[in-house]
Amino acid sequence: MSEATLRARPLALIEDDLVDYEKAMDRMTELVEARQRDDRPDTLWLLSHPQVFTIGKRTLPEHLPDPSRGIPVVSTGRGGQLTYHGPGQLVGYLIVKLRPDEGVVDYVREVELRIVDALGALGLPAERRDTPPGSELLTGVWTRDTRRKIVSIGMRASRGVTSHGFALNVDGDLSPWGYAVACGMPEVQMTSLANELGQAPAAEHVRQVVAAAFGA
Q1: For strand 52-55 and strand 73-75, is the pairing parallel, antiparallel, or unpaired?
Q2: Where are the domains of the chain?
Q3: Second-level CATH architecture of 9-213
Q4: Catalytic residue numbers?
Q5: Is 0.85 surpassed by the pTM of this model?
């Protein structure tokens, strides 16, 4: 399925550079509450974070990083498991009112498909995956040829409005992913646009392409 087959859902766009994770969570809460009151439109917020590991509701203690690495670990209310944020990564928070006929899992699938389209436009064939019965959730986006994970996704919904979102590895240091068990999958290989393409497109171009994929 391509973006062309998805229902139109234009989003307002907010852009920031490097924002402390906990400060971003406070701002995201404000945006969600405003959307719940219908005081603002559906929104895509693009930004990056300083180095931080974030853990979801299902993260196991043995998946946490060694504290000696010196990277903060923050508990968050989203779905999913452990992920890493750092410079060179594009984070997108999605504050969207769900339609009456969809749940947060439906919207996560839409997010995956839109990011697949964006990566294709950037020259990288990618895919989403269905989760086999009894397996760890395969939420996110993988490269089609090398079968590495390039986008992590974790979301939740409250009073019909989504929060949290996705993290696309553009050109940052990938080594912190090896300090812990990413996404609950010990065998997962993380990658980036720079790693797959030899050189990442300009950061501003990546932002523009991703925003366009979401109608923002």
Answers
A1: parallel
A2: 9-213
A3: 2-Layer Sandwich (3.30)
A4: 183
A5: yes
